[in-house]
Amino acid sequence: MPALLKRFARDKAALLGAGLLGLLVIAAIFAPWLAPHPGDVADFHIERRLQAPAAAALFGTDRMGSDIFSRLLFGARITLMLAAIAVGSALVIGVPIGLVAGYYKNWVSDALMRIAEIFLAVPQIVLAIAIAQTLGPSIENVILALSLTYWPFWARLVYAETRSMRNEVFIESAVALGASPWRVIVLHILPNIASPIIVRTSIGMGATILTAATLGFLGLGAPPPTPEWGRMIAESREYLPEAWWYALAPGIAIFLTVLGFNLFGDGLRDILDPRTRRSV
């Protein structure tokens, strides 16, 4: 473990990603204390409406007169919560399906992967939009839409890794010694394929945040006046280009968050997966 940490510490891009994610977590946890105006992120202040960035409002104010910086900090909470629950739900669905389908060689495993392929045949964003539009705009429905459309990516990854691991000598030895299939899957296969799952989860968090922001931009996410980054960009369209700061701040927040998860995931892949490990 110390050797892996040292290798990770020498990867400047991975450290940048970890730093960005650290700032995001700090912003989400300490939003009530870091926000200059924590009590008015959902209130109207007509006298402060669409003010440019200044000392009183570092990122300016929005159409309601609320401080955009404060709304970004509270929006970080929503973003992290939404992505964590959606990705966690997709893992709970996809990983067991991939393990079962990869270990067993029967019609059940074939049927499970055919179902996953049906979901993968449609672009995730299109399917997520369709589900969210059917269910109606809310954070809960966005999480459900993302979970239902994202699990096949983990199922396919775990399926492929389990298939290759299934023929390893130590797996065949465990089976020959009388180990049950579930014991082999849980104690032998799953720990040995954990690395690609962790890497895929990190990168998947960034993709999930970007998709959630897209749904919010289309009006399918959290209803107003919830400080959700995608909706903030959507609300700013009619005030461009005069109120340029309105769209710029949440756009940069989304960009840096997705970049952080991607850089961090690439760094994890380099140190955890010997097939793609590079010298850093």
From TrEMBL:
Q: What is its main location?
A: membrane
Keywords of the record: Cell membrane, Membrane, Peptide transport, Protein transport, Transmembrane, Transmembrane helix, Transport
Top-level lineage group: Bacteria
Under the heading SUPFAM superfamilies, the entry gives: MetI-like
Enumerate the transmembrane spans.
12-35, 78-103, 115-136, 142-159, 203-223, 243-265
Q: How does it sit in the membrane?
A: Multi-pass membrane protein
Residue span(s) of domain ABC transmembrane type-1: 76-265
**What Gene3D superfamilies does the database record attribute to this sequence?**
MetI-like
One GO-annotated biological process of the protein: peptide transport
> Would you tell me the Gene Ontology cellular component terms?
plasma membrane
In the record, the note on similarity to other proteins reads: Belongs to the binding-protein-dependent transport system permease family.
Which protein is depicted? Peptide/nickel transport system permease protein
